Amino acid sequence: LKAVILAGGSATRLRPLSCTRPKILFPVINKPLLQWILEGLVKNNVNEVIMAVNRQTEIAMKQFRTRKCGVRITYSCDPLRKPLGTGGPIKKAEKHIGYNASFLVLNGDIFADVNYREILRMHEEKGGVATIALCHVEDPSRYGVVELAKENRVKRFIEKPQREDAPTNLINAGIYIFSPEIFKYIPEGRMVSMEREVFPRLVEEGKLYGYIHNGLWVDIGKPEDYLKLNEMLLDSIFIQQKLKFKGEGVKVNKPVAFDKNVSVGEKSVIGPYAVLGENVKVGRNVFIQDSVVFSETEISDFASLEGAIIGEGAFIGRRVKIGRGCIIGDGVKVGDGITLSDGVLVCPSKEVFENVSAIKCII
Ligand code: GTP
User: Fold this and answer.
1) Catalytic residue among 160, 228, 267, 350
2) Closest C-alpha to 345, from 292, 358, 273
3) Is 25's C-beta closer than 6 angstroms to any atom of ligand 1?
4) pTM to 2 decimal places
5) Among 350, 235, 302, which Cα is nearest to 326's?
6) Is it the case that residue 245 has pLDDT exceeding 80?
7) Phi and psi of 154, rounded to 5°?
């Protein structure tokens, strides 16, 4: 079984953090999402992956030197400044994929514990052109909504309907098995949306099936979902860590996750739900809760973070207060005594020396 990972989107909803790193390299409990995905593939005996990327993602992945977990990775790149959407990259990778067997396609922004072999088994049993994994969610309006008929055949596929128009709460989980016949359904050399063009056609022809996945599934496409995923994993797979601090009286409210070489100064209160990346330096009397701090960042004395995401190599000054939903880009400097109220976004490498009291993006 070969897998194609779609990882060349623009990730607009995760800006400003996605300005400097592709979604697939976002750390999830201090490990890039890509590595989690590769480990899941290896567990399912998938050892060959085609990364359907854009130029930026390809460069970032090569620079980053992600652990490949024994998987052979080939890159298939969209033309420069001409994104191919969710379908075009599959067509472009046609020669790499070959025509001998069904193959797996994954959206590169999904964290899930899906059994890919089970979907393949169902796909082969039903004999369709495509089988898509489906999940139940509370609000289906952000996704492709699916209505199933008998024998798991897809009766309707509606991309992002109004909430009241959604016939079910079963949604496209962004995980598919395709037969090589799918290549006939995807036009070559242009942007193609699987969700809007290809799936509706397959439904008409009765060749699309749905596999219901009841396990863990999170789309990290929005900051709040990204934070939620870190939180869920802290709850479920928390690894016992021996934490050592230089300062006295540090209070750690579990669950938390610290990467290598994190230091925390005296009387700081960390957690619950704090993820600190490699070499993060936390000063004295700091408060961090419900937040993710990427590697190499420094949080100075008396600062407080609640419900925020702080990018890599940032510097947060003394007595700074950062509110819920704030996203601080890589390499940002926030001056001493500054307060950023809820929902403030700061673009990479900016310096902030004034309080911000309304939802705003600092460019
Ligand atoms: P938003 O801009 O925030 O909607 O994110 P996105 O661009 O990643 O779009 P979306 O979440 O719908 O994409 C689903 C998956 O397809 C993601 O893993 C994307 O990286 C991938 N993808 C989306 N568009 C393209 C594209 O044009 N080319 C390639 N190679 N992958 C894409």
Assistant:
1) 160
2) 358
3) no
4) 0.94
5) 350
6) no
7) -80, 125
